């Protein structure tokens, strides 16, 4: 589908790094019906492994952990993390916990979770509505926004301003891609992120 094709394109175009922050990450089609057979769906997982192994792209996954997280998700994450250090590439995994500070916060259903669904690379930003598991990409109507960083030199210049007394420069604004990268790094290095 178009959403998945766009996501894979962002992964495949990355040259230096791929940083992902999502609530769920499963290389399977999740069924919430009892007695349904497990269906393996490694499309995104394979693309990330290939980027790391074949192109030495650094991969970081920041995955939400909350009371509704499925335990087998961490087994899948452990399998991709196990590749770290085999060669010159890096694959790192952390989980993100939004704490409850009061009893009232703990009682709010389906809250206290980092509900992100984005990826930032050295080239682009992908922000979507789908959790990263096969069932979302196969059976729901997700949508995504992709911002690709261009080479527009007019945006790279500091602007000179003159008031009546002084000349000063206004620093160039950060690109959307760089802003999202900074958000990822903030969360990755926060007190709420833990190594898997």
Automatic annotation (TrEMBL):
Pfam families: PLDc (PF00614), PLDc_3 (PF13918)
MF annotations from Gene Ontology: catalytic activity
Transmembrane segment boundaries: none
Source organism: Schistosoma japonicum (Blood fluke)
UniProt domain PLD phosphodiesterase: residue ranges: 110-136
Organism superkingdom: Eukaryota
Record-stated family: Belongs to the phospholipase D family.
Family annotation (CDD domains): PLDc_vPLD3_4_5_like_2
Protein name (database record): SJCHGC03231 protein
């Amino acid at each position: 589908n178009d959403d998945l094709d766009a996501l894979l394109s962002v992964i495949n175009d990355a040259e230096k790094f791929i940083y992902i922050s999502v609530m769920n990450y499963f290389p399977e089609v999740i069924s919430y019906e009892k007695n349904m057979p497990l269906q393996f769906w490694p499309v995104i997982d394979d693309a990330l492994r290939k980027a790391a192994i074949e192109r030495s792209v650094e991969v970081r996954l920041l995955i939400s952990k909350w009371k509704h997280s499925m335990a087998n998700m961490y087994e899948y994450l452990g399998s991709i993390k196990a590749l770290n250090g085999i060669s010159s590439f890096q694959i790192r995994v952390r989980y993100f916990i939004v704490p409850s500070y009061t009893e009232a916060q703990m009682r709010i259903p389906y809250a206290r979770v980092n509900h992100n669904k984005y990826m930032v690379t050295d080239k682009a930003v992908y922000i979507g509505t789908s959790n990263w598991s096969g069932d979302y990409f196969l059976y729901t109507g997700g949508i995504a926004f992709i911002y690709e960083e261009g080479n527009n030199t007019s945006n790279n210049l500091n602007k000179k301003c003159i008031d009546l007394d002084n000349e000063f420069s206004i620093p160039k604004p950060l690109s959307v891609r760089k802003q999202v990268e900074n958000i990822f790094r903030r969360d990755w290095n926060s007190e709420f992120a833990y190594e898997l």
